[in-house]
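Sequence in, structure out.
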Amino acid sequence: MEVRNAELELVQNERLLTMEARQAALNLREGYMLIGSARLSVEHATESLRVMRQRYDLQMCSLGDLLDAYAQWQRAESNLIEAQTQYKIHETEYLRATGNL
């Protein structure tokens, strides 16, 4: 009976480890996609900031508009850093879950 219980526990643990590895892989893919999205946001914010600087230099917008564009760019950069950090966390978790760490 103890051997059978140990076998069942082993099977259950194997299933749990497989599920954990799959979840870690999904999190890793999601993190990669978030980095792509954050990079795109940085590109848009950078272009917006460039346009606002030109408009400000030509006195076609206010300093407040320029500062808003700069704040948007800063948020986009911050989000990119956060996405990259989260990806590394997911990568480490994936390596741990697959036994490669």
